[in-house]
Amino acid sequence: MLSIHEKNSFLKRLYPMTKIWASLGFIIGIFTFSNYYISSFIFVLALLVILKEKMLKEFKVLLIAAILLGISLFLIQGILSPANQTVVWNIIPGTGFTLYKEGLTTAADVYCRIVPLIAVLFLAIRTLNMTELGVALNKAGVSYRASFVLTSTFQIIPVLNKEMHQVMNAQKSRGLDTEGNLLNRMKAFIPIMVPLISNSIMKVQNQVVALESKGFNSNAKKTFYRDPLKTRVDSIIVACTTLFALSGVAYRVYLLVM
């Protein structure tokens, strides 16, 4: 959970495991079909959902990164791929800066998998509530301790990020130089990390005491404050994405056999 989309929306109301299984189904289908049209359709579909969920502003950062990655990938593969033979465009005549068909084809094949993958995972991560995911995992048969460790690990990331900025601001107010050249930043590393780690250890100890007082080690059946419910829509989505993934696997096996 890097950042959760808090608005009550269609994706937000879906059962947590539905998002996990749907994402996994799309990923398997994307990599097994490896088809430009299917990948483009999934990306456009994900983009429409992003627009409907009003998350385009957050997705822009990833979209720009994906575009820059694509430019780099096409240039590197188009120029340096060992399989290059057919010249497409001589960028600078008389030099080695020449784009080849084989390299561009390889780059397009890789890129058509990466872009829809980014969009699908963005939707899943941004709308997945870790507390509800822990409950769903517990209902699915995962032990309470394992689900608690998993959800706590993801929840602690934004907490540590927030505390790090607080420690940096506190150290700056005491005259510590945390900016400038690399040497200054290296000198500021220990004064920032020591209080951050010590605060984290203290919080873990306090959390252990709190969990013990709430009967964490008890063998009694656990109850949940937030109890997400699975609906017919969830079943339909899981069935469709599972069928898509199985079709991709069957298609890949067919190509290998033939």
UniProtKB/TrEMBL annotation:
Matching InterPro entries: ABC/ECF_trnsptr_transmembrane (IPR003339)
Gene Ontology CC terms: plasma membrane
Annotated transmembrane regions: 20-49, 61-83, 103-125, 236-257
Nucleotide-binding in keyword set: no
Transmembrane found in the keyword field: yes
Membrane-related topology note: Multi-pass membrane protein
Pfam families in alphabetical order: CbiQ (PF02361)
Subcellular locations according to the entry: Membrane
Main localization category: membrane
Keywords: Membrane, Transmembrane, Transmembrane helix
PANTHER family hit by this protein: PROTEIN ABCI12, CHLOROPLASTIC
Protein name per Swiss-Prot or TrEMBL: Energy-coupling factor transporter transmembrane protein EcfT
Source organism (scientific name): Pseudoneobacillus rhizosphaerae
